[in-house]
Write a structure and sequence with these properties.
With about 600 residues, this protein is mostly helical. Helix content is about 55%, strand content about 5%. The strands form two sheets. The protein has a three-stranded antiparallel sheet. A two-stranded antiparallel ribbon has the order 4-5. It is globular. The chain starts with 13 loop residues before the first helix and ends with a helix. This is DNA primase large subunit C-terminal domain-containing protein.
Length: about 600
């Protein structure tokens, strides 16, 4: 269990340095691709003679191991794509080593880590945040040993625990994997390994940031090191499927795909739609979709599980489509095919996903789904695909159709991506606004309001009370429009008690069939349109009845209000469009997902 705090020392030839780094990169690439299948991860050196012949640089804690790690760390400078891959793959390797090594590896690793922490605090230049983190880790390691958590043999039933600041394990808190109490996280024997994974990842991130503090840019400017870095990046691009690759910060699960479909480009949405309706895809379409899922971050075992989920179901399409199932020899054939696309089987070639150019060049074939809808579909077919996305944005749809007719499918797809980003941005603003409004409502709920209505001439009831819990006792036999009238009268006859403030009734959208009064919602079975129009004219506006961004909302008298959802046009997208250049469907998804 090595945390790679202390840099290596000594002399080494340039060729050996590059060989160590290249071998480690190939190994990390295989770990990243095979993750989720422990047997396949263990077989990496068996399947790859080039890695096996130079595996000395992979012996944990050795001088060559640290050399190969720090050379790759140096190569991350100025390359965000490689940096993301390096942090994720090294964390996976650390996790694999920890799971295979067991208790002795953890004890020895903690001992070495404490010694290297002492070296870092004494000799290394650290930022304030890095120094604080190192001190927290030092205290945490002492607490782990003192609590006897490493040597615990009854991890499921023991009562050992330590407390660490929640900032040390932010991702675990976000995933609800640990309990938080007064800004501290409780770590038990069951979650000890998760803590060590997070410490390693954060240590590595701080280590990469520290490179700029110790003058690493000057080292990279050296001709020899610059050539080594260039070769490393070339190998990375080759073995990760091409320069188009943009790794997702989130590792997807096969159960996540259904929720991610709205972020897919139209070509992949169409493939998923056919797969969902028939539980099958024909051969070439299946390959295209598999490679797309691979590129957006779906590991090989999750990709296999995704297809198994559909191919275990009965075939729902016409008889001319694919009728194979996930049983018998078909199961082995499909599994082999997916692993082959990941470079694990056969010739071990790491296949790339299809580019937009190649998809646009595909001609529609009988019973075979076409490539790019903007290039191969007619106007009626394309409109059916765009309507659920654009809805009432007719201007944008007309512009997209003009681009398609002009033979510019990339430009059409670019507009749809920009629209998607715009809508998600608006959703984010609305969530923030809704959250602020909720805070105000919560503040109001803490007060106690009591309203008394004594005007018997305006209402046929002697009393209408709004309780602290926000419930209204509604008179039996009254219509809802009468209740509205009562509430209007109520607002004029409120009495202020105990520094209470007077509130006007809030009227919701007539289309929503709801009426609101100070946070109260009363469902209505019938609505009188004339009463609604009268009430809207009195109060000036209605609130939008739908939370949909694409549905235009108007008050009952036809006047737009300030809270209405905005319909965007091409002018609203002019600042977003330059950022929407993509050459592959996977790039589209990763940009849309943000």
């Amino acid at each position: 269990m090595t945390f790679y705090i202390k840099p290596p020392e000594g002399n080494v030839s340039l060729s050996s340095l590059y060989q160590y780094a290249e071998t480690r990169l190939l190994f990390l690439s295989q770990v990243h691709q095979r993750w989720g299948d422990d047997d396949q991860v263990r077989r990496i050196t068996t399947d790859h003679p080039s890695i096996r012949s130079n595996s000395e640089c992979l012996i944990e804690g050795s001088r060559k191991d640290r050399m190969s790690h720090f050379v790759l760390r140096l190569a991350t400078l100025g390359n965000e794509q490689f940096r993301t891959f390096f942090i994720e793959a090294e964390t996976l390797l650390f996790e694999h080593r920890l799971q295979c090594g067991g208790e002795p590896v953890i004890i020895n690793g903690i001992s070495d880590f404490k010694r290297h922490i002492h070296f870092a605090l004494k000799y290394m230049r650290l930022t304030t945040s890095h120094h604080t983190f190192i001190l927290q880790v030092q205290k945490t390691l002492n607490d782990i040993l003192r609590a006897g958590m490493v040597a615990c043999t009854m991890k499921e039933t023991c009562h050992h625990f330590i407390k660490v600041p929640w900032t040390m394990v932010e991702s675990l808190v976000k995933e609800r994997s640990v309990a938080v109490n007064a800004s501290e996280v409780v770590i038990t024997c069951q979650t000890l390994l998760l803590l060590l994974y997070e410490i390693f990842k954060t240590t590595l991130e701080f280590g990469i940031k520290q490179l700029s503090l110790c003058g690493a840019e000057d080292l990279v400017s050296d001709t020899r090191i610059r050539q080594v870095k260039k070769n490393i990046i070339r190998v990375f691009i080759k073995h990760q499927g091409g320069s188009h690759l943009i790794l997702s910060s989130k590792r997807l699960c096969h159960t996540d795909i259904e929720n991610e479909v709205p972020y897919f480009p139209l070509c992949m949405q169409e493939l998923h739609k056919i797969l969902s309706s028939t539980s099958r895809l024909r051969h070439h379409a299946r390959i295209r979709y598999t490679l797309f899922l691979k590129d957006i971050g779906l590991p090989v075992m999750e990709n296999i599980a995704f297809w198994e989920n559909f191919y275990c179901k009965p075939h729902l399409g016409h008889s001319a489509g694919c009728c194979h199932t996930w049983e018998g020899n078909d199961r082995k054939r499909y599994t082999y095919g997916i692993r082959h696309l990941y470079g694990i089987e056969g010739g071990r070639k790491n296949y790339t996903s299809h580019s937009c150019t190649s998809l646009q060049a595909l001609l529609p074939q009988p019973l075979e789904t076409g490539g790019c809808p903007y290039a191969s579909y007619d106007e009626a077919e394309l409109s059916l695909l765009l309507n659920p996305i654009l809805k009432d944005h007719l201007q944008l749809q007309n512009i997209i159709m003009k681009e398609v007719k002009a033979g510019r499918p990339n430009a059409a797809c670019k507009i749809v991506l920009a629209f998607t980003l715009f809508i998600h941005k608006e959703h984010g603003r609305k969530r923030c606004k809704k959250k602020d409004m909720q805070h105000l409502e919560d503040a109001k709920d803490k007060r106690h309001y009591t309203y008394n209505l004594s005007n018997a001439e305006s209402c046929n009831t002697s009393n209408l009370t709004l309780k602290k819990e926000g419930s209204v006792s509604e008179p039996v036999g009254k219509t809802h429009c009468q209740v509205i009238h009562d509430l209007e009268s109520l607002s004029k006859n409120m009495t202020k008690n105990n520094n209470e403030v007077s509130l006007k009734p809030e009227i919701s959208s007539c289309n929503d069939k709801e009426f609101r009064h100070s946070g109260l919602i009363t469902k209505s079975t019938t609505v009188n349109d004339s009463a609604c129009i009268k009430h809207c004219s009195v109060n000036g506006e209605c609130f939008p009845s739908s939370s949909s961004v694409n549905t235009p909302a108007r008050s009952c008298n036809g006047v737009k209000n300030d809270l209405q959802v905005l319909l965007c046009d091409i002018e609203d997208l002019k600042d977003i469009l330059p950022k929407c250049n993509v050459s592959r469907p996977s790039q589209y998804y990763l940009k849309a997902r943000g």
